[in-house]
C-alpha cells in the first residue's frame, strides 16, 4: 500500500440530495468514516452537490486544499458526471481525476427501509470511490469528425417531420420506410383531433414536401440491415428493392412507429363482421363505406391495462373513441352510442371538452371494471349482446349493439425490436424504445448520436408526435452542426516496456483497433478503439490497459468495496456479500432505473461499474472472492446487444473458466454467475438480485480460512 | 399621573409611596442640610371657563415629610429669549405657525420643532424640520408653498387579524425585589430564546420592509440587493419563445374544502414544499396544527379542475401522477401511515405510469377511492378532518377521518399570460393559455411569425412533453426562415 504522504490529495463531497439520500443514509457518519481514509484531506457534505452552491464549494476546495482527486458521492454518473467533470476542469483539474459514487439509485432508493445497513453500504461504496480515485490518471479526450448526414428510420408523420426539419437545416437525410409509401399509421385515419381535420389533408402536403426536398433521400420498401460504428461515423447498410446502399451517417433518429393491437380472442373479435377495432372503424369512415347503424357500443382498454403483459394505458384510445363517437352522432343524431370505459383519459383541455360534448349529445358512458365485466356474446340470429355491470348505476345492463368497436392499444412494431437490436439500444418492458431519462431526456437514447420520436417511444397523438419529432431533429442536428466533437478518452493504451509482442490484444479486438504487424509492437488506433477493454483482459502481462478502468484502478476499487480488514470502522456483517460487475450500457442503467422505481433488493448487493463485461478479468473476479465477495455477478447486455459486438460472450466464456477454478478451490461454482440483461429490465434486475442473494445466503459465507492461496490477483495490479 | 402604568406599578412594588393631589410648599433646612419638606393636600374644584378642573389647596391640611434628599422633576418650557417680539406666540410661549407650511405670521420666517409643538419626540422634530425646509425651498423659488401638500393623512389600514388567536405578551423576567436595592444591575433580565420567539410570533406581519438590511447581511450567496431598480432593456431578437409556465388555483375559493380555515388542509404544492429537504421543515412531514407526523394522509383530486361551477373545466393532466408520487413519499417518510387518494378518473397515460399506479397500490398499499368528497369538517380538539363520500364503484357511503388533507388543485395558466399576449400580439384562449396556429402540424407556433410557445403556457402537460416541445422549438427557431413551409399552410 502506498504511504499516506505520497498519496494524491483527495477531496470527497457527500450529497444529501435533499432527503433522497440523507433521509436514509446517515451522511455525517459516512463523512466521519470517509475522513479517516488514506489520502482524504477534505470532506464536505452538501444538501445538493449538483447545485451551483455545491459546484462552487468543490471548485473552492480544489483551489484551497490543492485537491488532486475529487470524489462525489451522490446519484448515478449516468446523469451528473459530465457536470462535475466540467466543474473540476474549470479550475484546472483534469476531468478524468474525478470519481463518482452512486449512493442514491444503487443505495438509498433501493434500501430505504433499512437505514443502518444502507449507511454501512454507503461506506463501502465510498471507499471504493476513494480507492479508485487514488489511482486515476489524467486523460485527454480525442476529437472526432461528424459526418453531416442523418438517418431517419420510419416514414410516418414523426419520421417525416424530423427528416424535413433536419433537411431544412441543410443536412442530407436518408429517410428509410419499410412500406411502399410514406405516411405510416396516419394514412389509415379518418379525422384528426382536436380540430377534426381530415387526416389526408394533413398528410399529403407533408409527404409531397418530403419527397420534393433535395436534401432528403427517400427510400421506400427499404429496410436497414446493418449498423456499425458510433456517433459521428455510423456505417449503415440499407436494402432497397433494387440495391444495397452503404451510407456513412453522423446521427440516427428512430421513428419506427407503432401498430394497433389486433384483439384476436377478445369479445368475439373475428367471429362477427360487426365486431371491429377503432382503426377498422376509421378505415370504414375514411372510405365512406359505413352505413351508420342505430346502436353502437365501444369498449375501451381491450388488450391494454391488463393484469399481466400489456399493463400500460395506451393514452390515445379514449380520445379516439370520443372523436369517433362525436362524428357518428353528428352524422346520425339518432344513433345510440355507448362507451364502456375504465378511467377516461380525457386529459388536457380539448379532450375534456370532447368528453363534455359527448355527454351533452347523449353518448352514454358506462364505467366498468374488468372483474365485473361479463361478456360479449353472439346469438343464433347473429345479434351481438353485451352484458356489463354499470358501476355508476350499480346494476347489470344488456346492450344489443349493431356495431361493436373495440379500442385496442398501440403496440410496438416488430421492426422496432429489430432496429433496437441493430443499434444495441434498450427497449422497455412494454416493447417501446427506452429513453435516456423518463422525464428530462425524452428523445435521447443513452448512447450518443441516437434519438427517437413518435409512437415507437410510446403511444401518443399526432400533435405530441410532431413536437417530439422536432425535438429529436433538434438534438440530432447539434452534432451535425458542430462538425466535430470530443469523445470519451476511455480507450486502450499499451505499455511498451511490459509488452512481449504476443499479439493477443490485436486478435481479441472486435474493432481491429490494435495494429500489431508493422513493428511487432501493438499500436492502438485511437479513432477505431471503442473502449470495451477486451484486449486488456487478453493481455497476459498487463501491458494493454483500458484508460480509467486500468487494473491498477479496478483492483483497489474492488478491494475498497469489499474488504473489511484494513479500515477501522467498517462494519463486520454476518451476511454474505454479493459483488456485481455492471456494464455501463445495460445492467448499471437497469440498476439505476430500479432505484428510480424504488424497487427493493438486498443491501448486501454492491455494484461496481465496468465499461463492458468483456473488461472483467479473472483477476477481478478472484480479487473479489479473495477480498470478501461470497457471490459475484457479471451483468452484461442481452444477446446480440453488446455495444462492443460480443464482449458479453467473451465474459461468459471467462466465467465458465472461472467456475472451473472455483471447483478446484472447493468453492461452489454457482457463486459466480453471468447475467444478460438490458437497461429496460429494472424489475428483472431486482428480481435476479433477490434470487441470487437468497441462493448465496443459503450457501453462507465462503470459509476463507480453509482455502489456501485464494489470492492470485494483484501481481500485475498495483504498481 | 401620565407615567406608564407598568412603571408606576413597579415603583410601588419597590416601596415608593406616591402621594396624589399634594403640592410641596417649602423645604425645611437644618444646619445647611435638607431635613424635611412641607406639603399641602389639594382638592379638585369645579370646571373653570376652559373646562378644566383646577386643584385648590385644602386649608389647614399642611403636613411635613422627613427627607434627606429631594429630587425635582420639573417640566420644560419654550426658551423664548431668541424669538423676536413681532412673532406671534401662544399663551404658553410656543410659536404659532401654519400647520402645513410651518410659516409664522411673518411670511419669510418659519418655525418648527419643540418651539412650535412644545415637548415632543425626535421623530416629530425631524418631520417638522423637513416640512419647514420644503417650504423655505419653495419660498426662495417663488413657488406655491401649499400646492400638493394638503394631502389627507394616510388612513391606517385595518390590520387583518382573522385567523390569529389572541396571544398575550411574554412577561419580562425581572430581578427579585430583594436583589435590586443595593446595586445597579439591570433589573429586566431579558427574554429567553424561546420567549423571544414566542413574542416575535405575535407579529401580525402587516408591515412591509423597513430597509434594515439584515437580510442582505445573512444571505450567504449575496442574493439580496436592495439597490436594484427596474430597468428597461431593449434587445433585438429574431424569435421569441413563450414559456411562462403555470400558476396554482387558489382553493380557498371553494369553501367546502376548508382551505385557509383548517390548518391541516394544504395544497399539493405546499406538501411538496414541506417534503423537500430545503423546505421549512427540512423535509419532515408534519401536520401544521400540532407539528406531529400524520398517520393518515388523504389526497383529493380535481380540486378546481374538471369543474363547471368554480374553477376550470379542463383536466390539469399531471395531478393523478403527482398525488401518487406524493402518496409514496408519505409512506416513505412515515412508514406506518395510511394514504388515501380520492379521484374522479385516474389519468395515468404516460410511459410506465400505469405500472407506477399499480405499484403504489400493491407495494405501498395506497388506497385509491373513486369518489368526490362532501364538505370537509374539522374536529376542534384533534384538528382532524372528516367528510362523507360515496364510493362510485361500490355505492358505499362512508365517513372518512384523516390527519392531513392534501388538495390537488387545478394548475392554471400564468396570470400574466393575457397581458403578455397583448404585448406580443398573439392569441390566448378563454382560460389564458396561448393558442397554437395549428395544433396538429405546427403545435409550437403561434399566430405571430417568429413567436413560439411551449410547455404549460400552451396547455396542461407533463415534463417530458414540455421538454419535447422546448427542444422542438430550438429547431423551429433555427429554421425561422423556413417556418412558413414547415407549417404547411402558407
List keywords for this structure.
heterodimer, A: about 725 residues, alpha/beta, five-stranded parallel beta sheet, 34 strands, disordered N terminus, B: about 500 residues, four-stranded antiparallel beta sheet, 16 strands, about 20% helix, disordered C terminus
Please give a structural write-up.
The complex is a heterodimer of chains A (719) and B (490). With 719 residues, chain A is α/β, with parallel strands linked by helices. In chain A, 32% of the residues lie in helices and 21% in strands. Chain A is built from 19 helices and 34 strands. In chain A, strands 10-7-6-14-25 form a 5-stranded parallel β-sheet. A 5-stranded parallel β-sheet of chain A has the order 16-23-17-18-19. Chain A has a 4-stranded parallel β-sheet with strand order 2-1-3-4, sandwiched between helices. In chain A, strand 1, helix 1 (27-35) and strand 2 (40-46) form a beta-alpha-beta unit. In chain A, 57% of the residues are buried. Residues 1-5 and 711-719 of chain A have low confidence and may be disordered. With 490 residues, chain B is of the alpha/beta class. In chain B, 22% of the residues lie in helices and 18% in strands. Chain B has 11 helices and 16 strands. Chain B has helices at 5-13, 114-117, 122-141, 193-201, 214-218, 268-275, 319-333, 353-362, 417-424, 463-478, 483-487; strands at residues 22-30, 33-47, 53-57, 63-66, 240-242, 246-248, 265-267, 296-303, 338-343, 367-370, 377-378, 385-390, 397-402, 404-409, 411-413, 451-453. In chain B, the strands form 5 sheets. A 5-stranded parallel β-sheet of chain B has the order 7-14-8-9-10. In chain B, strands 1, 2, 3 and 4 form a 4-stranded antiparallel β-sheet that branches. In chain B, strands 11-12-13 form a 3-stranded antiparallel β-sheet, with no helix packed on it. In chain B, helix 6 packs parallel to helix 7 and helix 7 (319-333) runs parallel beside helix 8 (353-362). At the A-B interface, helix 6, helix 7, helix 10 and helix 12 of A face helix 7, helix 8 and helix 10 of B.
Amino acid at each position: 500500500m502506498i504511504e499516506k504522504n505520497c498519496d494524491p490529495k483527495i477531496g470527497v463531497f457527500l450529497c444529501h440530495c435533499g432527503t433522497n439520500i440523507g433521509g436514509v443514509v446517515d451522511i455525517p457518519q459516512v463523512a466521519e468514516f470517509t475522513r479517516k481514509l488514506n489520502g482524504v484531506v477534505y470532506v464536505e457534505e452538501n444538501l445538493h452537490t449538483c447545485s451551483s452552491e455545491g459546484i462552487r464549494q468543490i471548485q473552492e476546495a480544489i483551489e484551497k486544499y490543492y485537491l488532486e482527486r475529487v470524489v462525489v458521492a451522490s446519484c448515478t454518473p449516468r446523469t451528473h458526471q459530465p457536470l462535475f467533470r466540467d466543474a473540476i476542469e474549470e479550475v484546472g483539474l483534469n476531468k478524468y481525476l474525478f470519481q463518482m459514487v452512486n449512493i442514491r439509485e444503487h443505495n438509498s432508493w433501493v434500501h430505504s427501509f433499512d437505514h443502518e445497513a444502507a449507511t454501512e453500504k454507503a461506506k463501502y461504496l465510498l471507499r471504493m470511490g476513494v480507492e479508485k480515485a487514488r489511482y486515476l490518471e489524467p486523460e485527454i479526450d480525442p476529437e472526432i469528425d461528424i459526418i453531416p448526414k442523418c438517418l431517419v428510420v420510419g416514414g410516418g408523420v414523426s419520421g417525416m417531420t424530423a427528416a424535413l426539419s433536419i433537411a431544412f437545416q441543410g443536412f442530407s437525410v436518408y429517410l428509410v420506410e419499410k412500406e411502399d409509401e410514406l405516411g405510416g399509421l396516419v394514412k389509415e385515419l379518418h379525422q384528426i383531433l382536436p380540430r377534426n381535420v381530415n387526416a389526408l389533408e394533413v398528410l399529403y402536403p407533408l409527404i409531397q414536401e418530403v419527397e420534393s426536398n433535395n436534401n432528403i433521400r427517400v427510400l421506400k420498401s427499404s429496410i436497414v440491415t446493418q449498423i456499425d460504428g458510433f456517433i459521428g461515423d455510423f456505417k449503415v447498410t440499407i436494402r432497397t428493392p433494387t440495391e444495397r446502399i452503404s451510407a456513412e451517417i453522423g446521427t440516427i433518429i428512430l421513428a419506427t412507429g407503432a401498430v394497433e393491437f389486433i384483439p384476436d380472442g377478445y369479445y368475439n373479435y373475428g367471429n362477427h363482421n360487426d365486431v371491429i377495432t377503432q382503426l377498422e372503424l376509421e378505415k370504414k369512415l375514411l372510405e365512406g363505406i359505413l352505413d351508420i347503424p342505430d346502436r353502437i357500443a365501444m369498449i375501451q382498454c381491450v388488450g391494454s391495462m391488463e393484469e399481466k403483459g400489456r399493463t400500460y394505458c395506451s393514452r390515445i384510445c379514449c380520445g379516439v373513441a370520443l372523436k369517433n363517437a362525436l362524428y357518428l352522432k353528428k352524422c346520425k343524431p339518432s344513433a345510440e352510442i355507448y362507451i364502456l370505459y375504465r378511467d377516461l383519459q380525457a386529459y388536457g383541455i380539448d379532450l375534456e371538452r370532447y368528453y363534455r360534448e359527448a355527454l351533452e349529445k347523449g353518448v352514454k358512458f358506462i364505467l366498468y371494471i374488468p372483474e365485473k365485466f361479463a361478456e360479449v356474446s353472439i346469438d343464433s340470429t347473429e345479434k351481438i349482446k353485451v352484458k356489463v355491470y354499470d358501476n355508476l348505476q350499480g346494476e347489470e345492463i344488456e346492450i344489443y349493439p349493431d356495431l361493436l368497436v373495440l379500442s385496442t392499444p398501440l403496440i410496438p412494431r416488430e421492426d422496432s425490436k429489430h432496429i433496437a437490436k441493430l443499434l444495441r439500444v434498450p427497449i422497455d418492458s412494454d416493447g417501446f424504445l427506452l429513453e435516456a431519462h423518463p422525464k428530462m431526456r425524452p428523445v435521447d437514447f443513452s448512447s450518443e448520436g441516437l434519438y427517437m420520436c413518435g409512437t415507437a417511444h410510446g403511444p401518443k397523438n399526432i400533435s405530441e408526435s410532431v413536437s417530439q419529432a422536432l425535438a429529436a431533429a433538434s438534438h440530432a442536428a447539434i452534432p451535425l452542426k458542430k462538425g466535430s466533437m470530443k469523445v470519451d478518452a476511455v480507450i486502450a493504451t499499451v505499455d511498451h516496456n511490459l509488452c512481449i509482442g504476443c499479439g493477443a490484444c490485436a486478435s481479441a479486438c472486435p474493432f481491429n483497433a490494435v495494429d500489431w504487424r508493422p513493428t511487432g509492437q501493438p499500436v492502438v488506433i485511437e479513432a477505431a478503439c471503442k473502449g470495451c477493454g477486451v484486449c486488456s483482459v487478453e493481455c497476459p502481462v498487463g501491458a494493454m490497459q483500458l484508460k480509467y478502468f486500468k487494473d491498477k484502478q479496478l483492483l483497489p476499487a474492488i478491494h475498497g468495496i469489499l474488504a473489511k480488514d484494513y479500515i477501522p470502522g467498517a462494519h463486520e456483517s454476518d451476511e454474505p456479500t454479493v459483488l456485481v460487475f455492471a456494464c455501463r450500457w445495460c445492467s448499471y442503467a437497469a440498476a439505476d432505473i430500479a432505484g428510480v422505481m424504488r424497487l427493493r433488493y438486498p443491501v448486501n448487493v454492491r455494484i461496481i461499474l465496468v465499461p463492458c463485461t468483456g473488461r472483467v478479468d479473472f483477476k477481478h473476479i478472484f480479487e473479489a472472492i479473495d477480498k470478501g465477495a461470497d457471490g459475484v455477478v457479471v451483468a452484461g447486455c442481452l444477446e446480440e446487444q453488446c455495444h462492443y459486438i460480443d464482449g458479453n460472450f467473451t465474459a461468459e466464456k471467462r466465467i465458465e473458466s472461472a467456475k472451473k477454478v472455483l471447483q478446484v478451490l472447493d468453492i461452489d461454482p454457482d457463486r459466480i454467475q453471468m447475467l444478460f440483461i438490458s437497461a429496460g429490465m429494472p424489475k428483472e434486475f431486482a428480481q435476479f438480485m433477490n434470487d441470487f442473494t437468497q441462493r448465496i445466503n443459503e450457501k453462507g459465507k465462503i470459509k476463507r480460512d480453509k482455502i489456501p492461496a485464494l489470492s492470485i490477483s494483484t501481481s500485475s495490479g498495483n504498481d | 399621573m401620565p407615567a406608564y402604568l407598568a412603571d408606576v406599578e413597579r415603583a410601588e412594588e419597590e416601596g415608593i409611596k406616591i402621594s396624589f393631589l399634594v403640592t410641596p410648599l417649602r423645604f425645611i433646612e437644618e444646619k445647611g442640610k435638607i431635613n424635611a419638606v412641607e406639603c399641602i393636600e389639594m382638592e379638585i374644584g369645579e370646571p373653570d371657563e376652559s373646562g378644566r378642573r383646577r386643584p385648590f389647596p385644602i386649608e389647614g391640611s399642611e403636613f411635613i415629610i422627613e427627607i434627606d434628599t429631594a429630587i425635582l422633576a420639573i417640566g420644560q418650557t419654550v426658551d423664548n429669549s431668541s424669538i423676536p417680539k413681532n412673532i406671534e406666540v401662544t399663551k404658553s410661549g410656543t410659536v404659532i405657525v401654519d400647520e402645513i407650511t410651518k410659516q409664522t405670521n411673518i411670511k419669510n420666517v418659519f418655525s418648527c420643532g419643540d418651539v412650535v409643538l412644545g415637548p415632543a419626540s425626535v421623530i416629530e422634530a425631524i418631520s417638522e424640520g423637513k416640512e419647514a425646509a420644503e417650504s423655505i425651498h419653495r419660498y426662495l423659488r417663488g413657488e406655491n408653498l401649499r400646492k400638493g401638500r394638503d394631502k389627507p393623512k394616510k388612513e391606517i389600514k385595518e390590520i387583518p387579524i382573522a385567523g390569529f388567536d389572541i396571544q398575550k405578551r411574554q412577561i419580562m423576567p425581572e430581578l427579585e425585589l430583594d436583589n435590586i436595592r443595593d446595586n445597579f444591575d439591570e433589573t429586566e433580565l431579558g427574554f429567553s430564546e424561546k420567549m423571544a420567539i414566542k413574542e416575535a410570533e405575535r407579529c401580525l406581519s402587516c408591515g412591509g420592509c423597513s430597509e434594515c438590511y439584515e437580510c442582505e447581511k445573512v444571505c450567504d450567496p449575496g442574493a439580496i440587493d436592495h439597490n436594484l431598480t427596474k430597468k428597461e432593456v431593449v434587445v433585438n431578437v429574431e424569435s421569441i419563445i413563450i414559456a411562462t409556465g403555470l400558476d396554482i388555483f387558489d382553493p380557498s375559493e371553494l369553501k367546502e374544502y376548508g382551505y385557509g380555515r383548517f390548518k391541516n388542509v394544504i395544497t399539493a404544492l405546499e406538501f411538496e414544499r414541506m417534503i423537500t429537504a430545503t423546505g421549512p421543515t427540512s423535509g419532515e412531514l408534519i401536520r401544521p396544527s400540532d407539528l406531529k407526523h400524520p398517520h393518515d394522509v388523504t389526497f383529493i383530486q380535481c380540486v378546481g379542475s374538471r369543474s363547471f361551477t368554480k374553477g376550470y373545466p379542463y383536466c390539469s393532466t399531471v395531478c393523478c401522477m403527482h398525488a401518487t408520487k406524493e402518496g409514496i413519499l408519505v409512506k416513505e417518510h412515515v412508514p406506518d401511515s395510511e394514504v388515501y387518494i380520492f379521484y374522479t378518473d385516474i389519468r395515468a397515460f404516460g410511459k410506465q405510469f400505469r405500472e407506477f399506479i399499480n405499484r403504489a397500490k400493491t407495494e405501498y398499499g395506497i388506497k385509491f377511492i373513486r369518489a368526490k368528497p362532501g364538505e370537509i369538517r374539522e374536529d376542534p380538539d384533534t384538528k382532524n378532518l372528516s367528510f362523507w363520500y360515496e364510493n362510485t364503484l361500490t355505492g358505499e357511503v362512508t365517513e372518512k377521518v384523516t390527519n392531513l388533507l392534501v388538495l390537488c388543485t387545478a394548475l392554471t395558466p400564468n396570470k400574466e399570460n393575457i397581458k403578455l399576449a397583448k404585448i406580443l400580439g398573439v392569441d390566448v384562449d378563454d382560460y389564458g393559455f396561448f393558442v397554437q396556429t395549428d395544433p396538429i402540424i405546427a403545435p409550437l407556433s403561434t399566430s405571430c411569425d417568429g413567436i413560439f410557445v411551449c410547455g404549460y403556457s400552451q396547455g396542461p402537460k407533463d415534463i417530458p412533453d414540455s421538454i419535447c416541445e422546448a427542444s422542438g422549438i430550438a429547431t423551429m427557431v433555427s429554421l425561422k426562415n423556413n417556418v412558413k413551409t414547415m407549417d404547411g399552410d402558407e
